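Bit of a strange request maybe. I'm writing a small parser for C-alpha cell strings and I need a real example to test against, not something I typed by hand. Could someone generate the C-alpha cells for this chain?
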Amino acid sequence: MNSLVEKINKLKQEKNAVILAHCYQNVEVDEVADFVGDSLYLSRKAKETDADIIVFAGVSFMAETAKLLSPNKKVLLPRLEAGCFMANMINVESLREFRAMHKGIPAVCYVNSTADIKAECDVCCTSSNAIDVVKNLGSDEVLFLPDTYLGKWVESQLKGKVKVHTYNGFCPTHLRLRAEDVKKSRLEHPNSKILAHPECHHTVSELADFVGSTKEIMEYVRKTNFSEYTIATEKGVFDRLQRDYKNKTFYLLSEKLVCQNMKWNTLDDIYNSLLREEHEITLDEETSQKAMACINKMFEITQPVLVK
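Reply from user aminoacidic:
Good idea to test on real output. This should exercise your parser:
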C-alpha cells in the first residue's frame, strides 16, 4: 500500500476522522475516502458517524454544507482555494436584487451555493430532487439560482406547470459542451448511450439519452446492461465508472470536462490538513440557522424525516 495512504489511514484512526470524496475528485483520493459520492449524500453520511473531524475532499460550499449538518464536528477543506465557479457567481447583494425583481415568489437555491446564499433562500434542492422540490412548493412561479440551465431543465420537465425564473449562473465545465459534441459522438459511437448532467446547455440535454445528477448517472450505469456509455459530466465520474465496470465501455464526451477546482485536493493536501487540523470551515450562528432552515425545508418537501 502507498505509504502516504497508510499515513492518512493511521491519522484517521488516531484523530477519529472521516474522509469524504466527491466523485469529481482525482480518483486516487478514493484510496483514503470513507465515502464517495455527491455532495449532500456525503454530508449526510458524515453526520451519521461518530467522527470528531470531517475532511471534505471537494469544494468550499460542500464543506460548508457538511458543517451545517454536523455543527459540532470539526470540518476541514484540504485546499481552501478550492471554490466553485458557479457558486461564486452569486452573492447576497445580487441575490437580493434578483428577489426584488420578482417580489413574493419563493426562491429555490441549488445545493451548489454558499451558506450565505442558502440563508437568504426559502428552500434548497439538489440536481436529483430539484423537480420534486419545485413541483411540490405549491407555487405557479419560483426563482431558481444560481444555475440557469438546471432551473430551465426543471421547468421543461414540469411541462409548463411552473414558471421558473432563473439567475444567470452556470457551471463552466458543463458549458464547454455543445450540441456538435453530441452529434459527433453519435457518429463515432452509434451504439453508446449518452448520459448528461442537467447543468449542461439545453441543446446538449435535449440530445442525450438520459439526463440526471451525478448519482443518477452512476445508478443508470449500474442498473442497465448496455455495453457502451458516453459520459457528459465531469471526468471524475468517467474515471470511476471505467474503474468499477470493467465489462462495459465508456467514452468521455469531451476532454474539456475537467473542473480544475475539483482537482485541487491531493493525497498530500489531505494528509497535511488532517495532520495539522488546518483549513477549518466556520460559520456564524445566524447564517447557520437560516441556511439549515433552507435545507430542512427541502427534506420536509421530499421526505418525512428531517435533518435536525
